[in-house]
Specification:
Shape: globular
Strand order of the largest sheet: 3-2-1-4-5-6-7
Oligomer: single chain
Largest sheet: 7 strands, parallel
Number of helices: 8
Bound molecules: nicotinamide-adenine-dinucleotide, ligand 0WE
Order of helices and strands: EHEHEHEHEHEHHEH
Number of strands: 7
Structural class: alpha/beta
């Protein structure tokens, strides 16, 4: 019997086999969970479907989080096929590329709106849509980054979005506690994924994290997957509203 045997849940944010969401999915499946997946668009469906099927997923649905109807459709399909569910993983972020390059004060109103909508508001709408389908004892986890609380060079509007995301975690946790539903975030150290590719300062970020982290190494998708597994499992029944750092200790040691 695994930690997640008999539990069902959905993972938003797999793009490819480097995705943090994929590291989480593998850990959950290994622990016995039954998984559903979403993908952003048809181009990504080609990547995501074979990965999902390799973990025996039967429910694989499109969802652009900017589209409320798609989000509603995902959870009504889950209820139809599964009844109630146990967990939700939110591993989604996006900002316009130029906003991660230009000085922060140059961020356009539309760039700010897009980053906050996709990277932060989506947790709120996802939680709202999940609520009627989540069992008491259910658990929601999102992914965040240290740039929410420090001015990390180039992270810019994404840092503002992650601050909103982390605050949303606390407000959602406060509201849903009485329903027996927990909401937490995992704050991961830098990991080479699609969302990290093409960012000029990223290599430097990896080097500094490796050198200054107490563990003297980068964290992996597996490390993040295992921490997320804990937060989604009944090992964490007393834990909600937390920002849980999985960054090799960089956060506390490198201040
Ligand atoms: P990734 O590119 O593999 O995942 C990002 C996902 O967001 C992709 O699957 C993409 O399809 C999805 N996405 C973007 N816009 C979307 C939309 N409108 N609707 C639905 N999905 C959308 O990269 P990743 O690094 O695995 O990112 C996952 C999460 O982890 C993000 O929240 C990111 O901020 C966070 N994170 C990443 C790192 C890192 O260094 N890679 C560190 C800490 C936190
Ligand atoms: O959250 C992230 C990355 C989020 C992200 C990345 C991209 C690149 C491609 C959001 N939107 C886009 N849009 C694109 O067009 N991380 C935590 C990884 C990351 O990104 C950085 C970092 C780190 C760490 C950007 C600058 C500095 C550090």
């Amino acid at each position: 019997m695994g930690l997640m045997t008999g539990k069902k849940g959905i993972i938003f944010g797999v793009a490819n086999d480097k995705s943090i969401a994929w590291g989480i999915a593998q850990q959950l499946r290994e622990a016995g969970a039954e998984l559903a997946f979403t993908y952003l668009n048809e181009a990504l469906e080609k990547r995501v479907r074979p990965l999902a099927e390799s973990l025996d997923a039967k429910i694989i649905l499109p969802c652009d989080v900017q589209n409320e109807e798609e989000m509603v459709a995902v959870f009504s399909e889950l209820e139809k096929q599964w009844g109630k569910i146990d967990f939700v993983v939110h591993a989604i972020a996006f900002a316009n590329r130029e906003d991660l390059k230009h000085p922060f004060s140059q961020t356009s109103r539309e760039g700010f709106r897009i980053a906050l909508d996709i990277s932060a508001y989506s947790l709120v709408s996802m939680t709202r849509c999940a609520l009627p389908v989540l069992k008491p004892g259910g658990s929601i986890v999102t992914l965040t980054y240290l740039g929410s609380v420090r001015a990390v060079p180039q992270y810019n509007v994404m840092g503002v979005a992650k601050a909103a995301l982390e605050s949303s975690v606390r407000y959602l946790a406060a509201e849903l506690g009485e329903s027996g539903i927990r909401v937490n975030a995992v704050s991961a150290g830098p990991i080479k994924t699609l969302a990290a590719s093409g960012i000029a300062s990223f290599k430097e970020k990896l080097r500094v994290a490796e050198e200054r982290a107490p563990l003297k190494r980068l964290v992996t998708q597996d490390d993040v997957g295992k921490a997320t597994l804990y937060l989604l499992s009944d090992l964490a029944t007393g834990v909600t509203g937390e920002i849980h750092y999985v960054d090799g200790g960089f956060n506390f040691a490198a201040g």
